[in-house]
Amino acid sequence: MYISLKDIQKLFEDTPSTLTDSKDSYCLSSFCLLSDSITPDSFSTHCLYVLDDPDHAASLQPDTDASFLILTDAIRQAGAIRKQDGTALSTLILEQTDTKKVCSILQQYFDDICGMGLFADSLLEILFFEGGIQAMLDQIYPAFQNPIFVFNPDFKLIAATTGENVVLDEQARKILENDGFTEEEFKVVNQSRIHRKVLESERPILTIHPTGGYQQLICTIDTQKEMGHIVLNALNRPFNDTDPQMLYLLKKAIDQQMKKDDFIRNNRGFNYEYFLRDLLEGKMAIGKAYQNRMSYTNADFSGNLYCMVVETARSSETLNTMHIRSVFETRFTGAMSLMYQGGIIIIFHPAGNGTLSEEDLCLIHDLCREYGLYAGMGNCFQDILKIKDYYKQALRAIELGICHNNNPGLFLYRDYYMDHVANLFTQKESLETFCHPQLKILLDYDAANQTDYARILYTWLTSERNMATTAKELFLHRNTLIYRMKKINAMIDVDFDDYYERQRIILSYEFYQSEKND
After folding, report:
1. What is the pLDDT of residues 382-400, one digit of tens each?
2. Residue 350: how many CB atoms within 10 A of its CB?
3. How far apart are CA 96 and CA 99, in angstroms?
4. CATH number for the domain formed by residue range(s) 271-424
5. Higher pLDDT, 190 or 69
6. CA distance to 182, 309, 477, 499, per residue, from 348 (Å)
7. In what order do the strands lie in the sheet with 215-220?
8. CA-CA distance, 62 to 213, in Å (whole number)?
């Protein structure tokens, strides 16, 4: 903490004073009371020299820069102290004769400020040497002498001061046992506006615990991004003036630690990670510099590519994202991964311009089930600059896939393409707008008579009007299929030799099935 003579003047702002400040201002770390019998042979630039005798001050002529505080009953009787060459030194003249009171105030001030300096130095040391948030609380607890709790945005406990010397009330012990907020604490948050006030305040907020009756200092870790909050409870001693300042320093240190942990967890320093993020966020302008930027990534993006997204938030358990990334990169040659918006993106790059086989897809699906992953994969593509489109396809595959099967696994966009198209078509129009009128006759008949003529027609068309293939697909005897197709032809009037008619019926039935499944 930097202390100058101007800070000392502010400390006595209710007392008349005058300040002669030299061009050089030094950080003060202590003070010393001088008298006729106590005059140093040499002066320090980092010590404040206090004199209660203006005549003694006039006799001083230090050989170096120093800072002085002169106490007098009349400011006009004292003047600035000068060096041997006549240069004026930093001198604060205070209209105050109670030397003992002044020294007491100075002692408390230096103890507090220097103590906060050591406090900040301890936090910096922990940050530098990878101690973590719990290590911060363990080391700085003596400065607060009160229990501290750090919560994440979900009110789960990240770290807390514990031990034989830590005073805890019943509610605090419940929080420790519950590893986070109890139902009682949630009720307090819901009934009080204090949490919203805390989230918007950069400085700690002083409040009273509604059931415990003791004071609390609460502060959010980051007002721009919800990362959690810190609570300091006055259970062992009352708060003093430095507690809010030290808590502010602690929250800044925790903020940096969490951001550092997040960076280490999500980034491994590969150039391609930054390149792909720029593409996904639309920060990269496509132009002549494209080839140069590709070289910068030190990665090969030529040939067939697949984009898979793992939505980590859907998993029921906390995932070790670094391990999962390593698993896929190890199992699949050429695979690259990165963290993006809380999820994992894995780019598969089969060697030799190949494609992912059905065996590969089954292996990916099995890995997703093993680790409890909800993953989506877009179609194969070749231009890495279009990765954003295929990233969206992967997300859409998960969104549509869980409507059919809400279990961990791999959802392929190719399997839900028609669902996606149907959703887009029916956002503004009803399904009947797109349904082939002849198919609608069959659908209505099926609904009224519990028959399955629409599906039979659809299967016959998708089987290229091959009766044997259709019968096998529907598990029907060939004669049964022939009989039912005669019934269908008698009910509707369609030229099945017309490609567009066949296509429209197939699409209409796909749309119908998509809406039915929703």
Report:
1. 989 899 999 999 999 999 9
2. 19
3. 8
4. 3.30.70
5. 69
6. 44, 11, 44, 37
7. 157-160, 148-151, 229-233, 215-220, 205-208
8. 56
Q: Is 44 left (phi over 0), alpha (psi -120 to 50) or beta?
A: beta
Q: Quick one: pLDDT at residue 6? A: 85
Amino acid letter, residue 195: H
| 123 pLDDT more than 70 | no
Q: How far apart are CA 496 and CA 505, in angstroms?
A: 10
Q: What is the DSSP letter of 386?
A: G
Which of 505, 503, 483 shows the shortest CA–CA distance to 493? 505
CB neighbours (10 Å) of residue 371? 18
Q: Return the exposure string of 240-265: e unless at least 16 CB atoms fall within 10 Å of the residue's CB, then b.
A: eebbbbbbbbbbebbbebbeeeeeee
| pTM for the full predicted model | 0.47
- Fold (CATH) for 131-263: Beta-Lactamase (3.30.450)
Distances (CA, A) of 246 to 123, 160, 161, 238: 11, 16, 16, 15
**Longest distance between any two alpha carbons in the chain, whole Å:** 127
338 pLDDT exceeds 70?
Answer: yes
